[in-house]
Amino acid sequence: VVAAWLADRGITGELTLIVGSGFGSDGGREGLDSPMLVEGFLRAVVVSVGNAPADATDGVVHLGGGPDQVIALLDQQLARRAAHRVPHIDRDPAWVVPLPGDPGRERVAEALGALANGHSGTRGSWEEAGPESTPIFFVSGVYSEDDHRLPGPLWTGFDLADPALPPTGQRVLDLRGGTLFRSGDDATGIRSLRFVSVASPQAMALRAEGPESQLLPGNPVRPPANAEAFVSEQRGHRSGVTTGQRGTAIAVAARDWEVTASGHRIVERLATWVADPADGARLDEAYERLVEVEALGFDTLLAEHREAWASRWADAEVTIDGDPAAELAARYAVFHLLSAAPDSGEAAVGARGLTGTAYAGHVFWDADVFVLPALAAIRPPAARAMIEYRLRRLPAARAAALAVGLRGARFPWESGDDGTDVTPHQIVGPDGAPLIVAAGQHEEHIVADVAWAAAHYASWTGDTGFLGGAGRPLLVETARYWASRIQTDTDGSGHIRSVMGPDEYHQAVDDNAYTNVMARWNLRQGAALLARSGETDQATEWRALAESLVDGWDPRSGLYEQFTGYFDLEQLQMSEVGPPPIAADMLLGAQRVGSSQLIKQADVLMLHHLVPEELTEGSLGPCLDFYEPRTTHGSSLSPAISASLLARAGEPERALALFRLAARLDLDDITGTTVDGLHLATMGGVWQALAFGFLGMASEQGALAIRPSLPGAWRALALRLRFAGQPIGVRAEPDHVTVTCLAPLLVNVGDQGPTWCTPGTTTIALGSSPGTRSHP
Amino acid sequence: VSFVLAALDNSASARAVLDAAVRIGRLTGTPVRAVYVRTDPLEPFDAVESAATRAQVPLRVVEGPLEPTLIDALGDPEVIVAAIGAWSGAPPTGPYPTGHTARALLEHADKPVVVVPPATGSRGVIRRILLPLEGTEGSSRPVLERLLPLLVDQVELVVLHVFTDATVPAMLDRPCWTGPSTTWTSWGGSFSAGTFPMRTVSSSGRAPSSNRLPGWRPTSTWT
Known about the structure:
The complex is a heterodimer of chains A (about 775) and B (about 220). With about 775 residues, chain A is of the alpha+beta class. Chain A has 21 helices and 33 strands. Chain A has a 9-stranded antiparallel sheet with strand order 4-10-11-12-13-18-17-16-15. In chain A, strands 19-28-29-30-33 form a 5-stranded antiparallel sheet. In chain A, strands 5-6-7-8 form a 4-stranded antiparallel sheet. In chain A, helix 19 runs antiparallel to helix 20 and helix 19 runs parallel beside helix 21 (about 680-695). The two termini of chain A are about 45 Å apart. Residues about 770-775 of chain A have low confidence and may be disordered. Helices cover about 30% and strands about 20% of the residues of chain B. In chain B, the strands form 2 sheets. A 5-stranded parallel sheet of chain B has the order 3-2-1-4-5, with helices on both faces. A 3-stranded parallel sheet of chain B has the order 6-7-8, covered by helices on one side. In chain B, strand 7 (about 155-160), helix 6 and strand 8 (about 215-220) form a beta-alpha-beta unit. In chain B, helix 1 (about 15-30) runs parallel beside helix 2 (about 45-55) and helix 3 runs parallel beside helix 4. Residues about 175-185 and about 195-223 of chain B have low confidence and may be disordered. The chains are: A alpha+beta (about 775), B alpha/beta (about 220). The interface between A and B is large, with 55 and 42 residues.
């Protein structure tokens, strides 16, 4: 009970001190204090103050000294706290990620160690950031006038007396507590701990200690590198910097406290930020907030922060028994997913979250289709905030449709602050010649992707009123767009011409199956909402239009053709090119790849992932057999989705290989682009592969379907999440599934039919061996 | 005082080596000194002396075996860069476009060595340096640690990375044919950032001048 009480507050393992006098065995009997050594305290620091060394046992430090020693130990801890020493973290290998220390990989390290709370993000750079570092502070949704996310003032910088000295120590990202810890030699090294509070979203804190002669705090807040406009000022002990201009600005205020004793310096820094695109960034307000944060103080902020993270993990924990590396990588993905979006307001979740500059922080379908489904289950308010971002940009989407002579809402391929299309339209190539960027014009599927995200959110969370209320325009206006976009031929068939599907190797194609089927789904959903509000004529028209859309289904082969003419292309497969992943467009050239059947990522198969009910039953297997050998996985979005589908199709071992690729994508910098930020969509895909692939979960008419398909190396896979408004736990083992819930929950395990789980824990045997069922 | 070492021989390449050394000296803000290894006490070296005098570069004549003496001269801690002629006499045959002396110096060098073909004419101030990089730390670190810190004059560094079947990137999220520079902005910028962990690296050339390192003008070219 005590261990659980502490764990709920983020106090685990090494953060716990257990003191007793009788841990050893006494004539074959357990010592009196041995019952304290329960599983929850497995990694606690255990000290025996008993008189005999035999009072200690394995893992117990014998100090002796009796009650006086207890007092001394507690005094030591109080003295540490009074001296504002850098707190420890629990270095549980299942929950910590050491960052690379090699200077050549510093930019990867600082992306991997980024801390964010959905509102703001700070890269994990060394405090004394040298020339190899790119420290960045971002505030979600704040873009400069050229639609690039605005770098804010930096709050983690220190000076060193000798700036030529390379950084020392090791940085460790503590996933459970949401802190970045820098270990260092007690006497000569620099140690620090920092966090971006999830309990007080505008508070950030850093404590560091090191030799007085070396550690110089310097200015607590500094302009970012390459800052084109900034204002810096000092008010008493507090410092402030504002970057940006007019409405697009970020203000950060910070204050340092220093304690120096015996040649040792301790610096404690608290910082706050203000950035309101509608109201500008007022440094005055940042100072006011700083006073509030100061009133809380570092220790309280840290305690609240750890408790808030413990609460987050309670709804999001991943456990993979038998595969600690996969478990840690999955937790790492979930950590950054939880960090990506705020719980309220609107969330502009860029392709790299708040961890780097790639894609200028623009929002793509990555957010709607890859990140949102994960957050809908592990942080529903954050998913709702992502939908709010789309809702508030409906006027821009309507204007975009109107601008091309169509109706409804056309969401842009890339968007930033105001929701207009910020996809680069033309760029200058290496030879100086202009090149057209086709994605913005042709990747129209994002219109349906936005609608799908809203519908998925409503279905998964059980927010049944959402689609008829606030979310309604996202489905109706997107359906209206497709209704005006579809061309009807004289034979009555509907077509969507000149588009690009998720497979970006083939641009400006006709009747891309993904686009058409998603549009069909969108029209049907929109029609259903219209029918509910009595607009039956329009609903009937949209349903007929949906029926008329060609979808590439070829009953003879049992395949969906990716687009018109795809089957006639050169039948090139990856076995003839090289082992995936490969950026085949770069290796073979765009023209060759475009004239072949090689595809960058799931396209037809993406339909099986998102809207299997729209497809012919039994088509997943043949489509996997056909398209997977043609998939280069040249997109970071690709491996996780394929892993999910392979698991669903009963091939968990093949799925595991792709899952590992996705889960390690950033940790091993597989793409070579992690320096510019973490691949958030991949992380969303990782969670989806676990939930929808290996656990086979789906929301089906209000019931939670669970169809596990575990690889042999996994003894069990367990997720904690929210479904239909309540926190649940689902654990799959080879022969049974365990469901934990607080309220009655309708489940369908292994297609055995709906069953009610009563509050508590329910174990359901799997009727047939997992991974052998057929799926649509 | 740090200096650029011009390793001269008694051939026509001496002028080219001196010219290259002087231009490197401007780039690094250091003087140039020449060395000539006299292997035969009776060997005249008028041409070398004359070339050094014309270039206003002090010449040191050292007697001894050619390669060990040059390697020893290169080991002077005040030498920051050396320039040497690629060959003398007839161009070398075989796989290497350098003679044995230049190769010996390269193999023993722990600092940058510039190998100058004899036909190289004077081209004024060096404004651009081509950096072929394979992307590994082992190949880029010497450039980063040994070459770039020497550059004090404004210079454009052109990073050249040639993909092969084995090194083509695993993933490129943006389709490359729709816009190499958008692709390169992400991948190329990351490549250069990872290869050259310097704050000002950019493949777009938009980094403001205020944060440039001396000698650094961020431009990347990819092929």
